[in-house]
Structures
1.
Amino acid sequence: MNARILPLYATIVIFLIAYLICYIQFPAMLSTRVVGNLLTDNAYLGIVAVGMTVVILSGGIDLSVGSVIAFSGVFVAVMLRDTDLHPLIVFALLLGITTGFGAAMGALIHGLAMPAFIVTLAGMFLARGAAYMLTIDSVPIDHAFYDVLDAYYRMPGGGRLTLIGVVMLVTVFAGMIIAHRTRFGTSVFALGGGEHTARLMGVSVGLTTVKIYAFSGFMAGLSGIVFSVYTGSGYPLATVGTELTAIATVVIGGTILTGGSGYVFGTLIGVLTMGLIQTYIVFDGSLSSWWTKIVIGLLLLLFILLQKGLLTLGQRQRSSPT
Amino acid sequence: MLLTVRDLTKTFPGTLALDNVRLDLAAGEVHALLGENGAGKSTLIKCLTGVHARDSGHIELDGQPISPTSTHDAQELGIGTVYQEVNLLPNLTVAENLTFGRQPTRLGLVSGRRMRADAEEMLAGYGLDQVNVSRELGSYSVAVQQIVAIARAVALSGKVLILDEPTASLDARETETLFKVVRDLRERGLGIIFISHFLDQVFSLSDRLTVLRNGRHIVTEKTPETNRVELIHHMLGHELVAAEHRHAARKGGANLLSFKGVGRRGKIEPFDLDVRAGEVIGLAGLLGSGRTETADVLFGRTPADQGEATDDAGKLNLSTPRTAIAEGFGYAPEDRKTDGIVADLSVRENIALAFQARRGWANPIPQAEQKRLAEDYIRKLDIRTSSAEKAVGDLSGGNQQKVVLARWLAMNPRFLILDEPTRGIDVGAHAEILKLIGELTDQGMSILLISSEFDELIAASDRIIVVRDRHHVSQLVGEEIDTDRIINAIAARDDAERAMS
């Protein structure tokens, strides 16, 4: 059996067990309302985590995404307040900006041979600062088009399958195709396996790096739009630390933090696991929300140990003759 | 001729790496390329594969002049390379590795089914039927990975295949499998350049061979028409008159250390070694024969997995370099730049390093004492540096080596291992280091000297141990030490010739 798919199975099993525990305690958890809300509440996280998955698969990291989401929300809100542009045009502008921002970070990472950590850390401060420059207040979005975006489909059982939830699922699907079924995706895995070797095998390292961070920037922008729909406003202090939550969901989703191995689908499960824990806390009512963080911390630890174990297993496999 | 190289010259700052080298490779031929470290093999290969640009000379492939500018470029032209370290991606599947860059796509998406079919086709004829191309490459043994790398190189290039020490990490059975693949490829008309320092393999596989030494072409011969002794003469170069022996073997020294059955699986077969106080033991052998491996085992860098080391006080703990240092060992490794000096630290800091390590971090050596120590050795060893605070990386090779020596001398070790102490340093410094070895042993220190320069070994050693194929095969003492005997011992194929020892 393929050892690298094990973390994905582990993620799915943990999610199912967690859901089972929740269900036993609160049978209402297994309703379309809860499932619908799970998708809606975590739509922005799921979208940005898809971008993060690709970055981490390549062996990189993108710390700027949380700030970029906040910037996106503020940008959209301010543009809609101060101009007569149609939201779709504003979205297109925004996605152009965030994609270009990501591409620029990618170019710096490759061109200066700087660690992604530092470059995207700078990007994190820049984007947050840019959001403050636009406004320091929470700007409500009041536009007829946003009522359209709030559309949902009422599922049997009364649950709402919202547009933004669907956008998230479509994004995950697109991410799966891009990461696992395109040449670009193979190059991403190749970079994660070893930059030097990837170059020897003919990967255009610079171009691929730029594309990877541009992709992450695009996803962060899209996530920002979804977040603005979700909250109906733009606020420069929003989504602080979301980049770290995204990294956590990627790792819980079975992607190895050093790159080169993982599945976009696992990230979706990671996001849903995280959402599930929050939902459980809401249902329970007596637990404080910091329990989410403790459980996430424990899950992360578990997955790091699992990865280490698989790594050792793989080495043992290799040293024995095949 | 498939590939013709003429008058190829390449210089790096300060060294002439290739000096008018020539090479001919015919289609359907395995051509071995031989030479010790620094002979120019890798530089030649790198010029062929576009890693380095040549200074002058011609390379022709199929009669067309070529100047590859990158490995990718060389590949397109038809020259593929497989390195000792497999240069494929262990985290991708075998199929992805084989088809990388040319994955079959449909509507922009990679078609897994066709990719696997392509990969299976590429692997056909390599005897890897049991390999599942959908599994990660990393889950297979190095030998399988190596053959997959060859399959990829052949499929991509298809004219010239360069194998750069492909067998270094394979066992005997795997090597045989690999050779079968290489012979099949020869039948298919590829020109194959085979680099190896295992002479057995060269004789069993190659049709012709070329020897390089110090960046020059020495000889090209048909393999069956030469023999080991000749070959080693060519590789090591002994036009030199029998070097004068330093002094008659001194028997006076008391037994200092003794190693019984010390060895490490896959590195060096178990050996016995007795070290007397104040003697220089030379270790002779070809590259990869087990010289450095012996030193690494003695110093605990790759600790022995069998045998034991004792002195008159009892058993020695040589499980890590740290404990070896505590037992009074010192080791100046072969690769000075990466293993010896800390280039960015000053001369003073480099000299104080080992001494500080022994004292422990809680007990720092006062600046003044470090300074005194540094000044002392700079004077004693005549280290040419403008000041003790200069970064070691800025010194010349010979002076760097002296700094490494000074570091160990500051520890006053009883047993010092010197691996190629004179490599890459100028003649003057060379002589000084040899003189220093003499002085140190006069003071009672014992030294294990590893060198590929026989004249140096002969001049400095009281006795010489010859290693071959990871065995200590023979020992020459005193009057027995001369170049011919060493070369014969290295070349000997059977133990009958050990009679001379």
2.
Amino acid sequence: MRSNLQRLLILGTAAMGLTVGSALAETELRITWYNDGNEGEVMRDLLDRYEAANPDVKVTLDVVPYKAILESLPVQLAAGDGPDLARVTDLGGLSEHYMDLTPHISDPAYWEKNFGPFLKWLRKPGDDSSISGFMTQLTVTGPYVNKTLFEQAEIEMPGEGATWDDWAKAVNEVATKLEIPIPMAWDRSGHRVAGPAIAMGAKMFDAEGNPALVDDGLKAMAGRLYDWHQDGTMAKELWGSVSGSQYLGANEDFANAQVVMYMSGSWQIPQFADKIGDAFDWWAVPAPCGPAACTGMPGGASLVALKTSKHPAEVGKLMDYLSSEEVLNEFYGRTLFIPGHLGLAASGVDFKTEDPRAEHALLTFAAAVPGISPIAFDLQGYVYNRVMFNALISRLGEAIVGELTLDQAYDRMTQDIEQQIAEKKRGG
Amino acid sequence: MAHNSTAQSDEMSLGDRFNAVAAWPMRILFGLLDRPFRAIQRLFGIERMPYIFLLPNLAFFGLFVVVPLFINFAFSATGGTNLFLADRPFVGTEQYRYLADCGSYLDPSTCREDRFWRGIYNTITFVVFQVAFMVLFSLVTALILNRKIRGRGFFRAAFFFPVLLSPVVVALIWKWILLRDGVLNAGLTSIGLDRILFFVDPTWSMFWAIFVSIWAHMGFYTLILLAGLQAIPPDLYEAAEMDGTKRERIFWRITLPLLWPNLLVVIVLALIKAVQIFDEVFVLTGGGPGTATQFIVQYIYTTGFSNQVQNFGLAAAASVVLGVVLFALTLMQLAASRRREDN
């Protein structure tokens, strides 16, 4: 039987051990993160390995809803109280809060070589050299179709080069024949409309580079969306049932085989592979064409270092690890994300999937990248692109439910954009 | 008898002993506070002591209510998107003039900030119907629950239960019921009727916004009215019954006048809460379709927080307008209750 003294000694030693352990983990880095699929799990796994190799650093992954990334994080950053790193999608919009990692990373040339085109998206206007982060995911917008429904309806799917009108006609035929409630659904997002609008000839900017959302190209696409909601090609529940610029996706409806064609993007691949599996053939198809192009919109999420960090050197070291080719190959491969690393895009990522539908979708979206319109890249890199997307979606939504005419909606879009940019330029 | 009295005195002494033990921490505390409070009393005088006791609460109220009120007011006189007041340019009344810039106040589409005015009109519609039906249903429910009916305890609990739920939970439950493939539409289709897309129709959306809000909060107001009904002396009813007074007359001449103070509290609380409506409707309808159920608080939230350019100045100005409306409603309530007391 142990004496009290022995017990005290054991307890004391254990307490000292714990103290030493916590003293070793001197630096804590926090990452604000959101998940579309399994990427949080994969990132945690990678961070665990980093922590094992660097026992003096502890990395906490704070997983928050996507809405918090859009709405809470900017306020937090403006108040000077942000995390060390964050996964963001408003790439240019938050650029004033990014840390320039150049002095803290081991090989800036590697970053320029492999992330060059995407680094521009993270820079403030007039900045052409800072390095703030890398793309955890490059996305391309584009449609998915329920191929099984086409086969059951014995209707041929429109091929490469088909227009949006061709697809609208085909999906209506399928839906009518099989009594599917929603022939076509688009995410309620201005970003989703931008690609097809550019395909129709929208220029998005004037000759001086100022935003000029409303032109004949945009009207051509917005008019179609309006008409499709009136004739039942699209269900009003998605675009008409909420106000403002709120995002709504039709992923659940598509996964439940309630939708023939779903306009969304490459980030849905892991979710569909998981949720739909082989229940039906979900098939990514090339972006339908308009008179000007056959294009989707690029986009994605980036892991960025933030000025609010008190540990820039440790952040730089962590970013060196996470951005390395080996680590990113594993990250993209396990998450089924299109690589935002040029070296990996060229050599090919070892995607961990046996699902032929997921493989096909990855190939389709990856093949779409070279065909993306330069206007779409410019728009993605534009610092106020969300102002444009939000004005587009909120006013078009109001027109679709009959609160505004299309012409009134176009006027309001222009007014909203001018007012918000003027407010931003007034200070901040 | 003697035995009984001994037992009683034993019990009392046990109780006294327990009280003595339980009270000693309080005695120590009061002992510690006694000297400083005596000193304060000597300094300020006994008449001012109530203010000293109110001071801690007032300090919290000032810090978390009055100071933010002034900060909000200051924000409404500034522009730009900086978070810190010192970094924001002063614009005077510009934000208010922007909100008030209308061709016709009766037609929001002629206003520069059309969504603000749509929010105002939607809020007025919501307040009128929600408060009227809320008070009516709460009163009827309280009258029924005040009677000796079977399962009265169960019904009281059942009506109060939704009050305990978070507004988000309430909205999600009803959304689940009302969606295209929700429980209600499943019921309609099972009896051969067409499904109704409730959230696509502006009238249905407003109806459900009002209905769900009443369902969620009615229990609270019912409880206030029930307490008022139980405070009415029963001998008044007995006397009226002995006089052979009709039930309707008893209601109009005894119940309603004596319940009026509680009813007034219910009306004012319901009115203030209805003007502030946001969370449950935001989750239920998202403010749609279009802007059909977008209320003034949602407008403030969207303008200040969910746009890429967070226009804190405009949102603060709209908040001041909302604050003025709520202040006016409170003054009306005070005036009504004073008039009632005078009468």
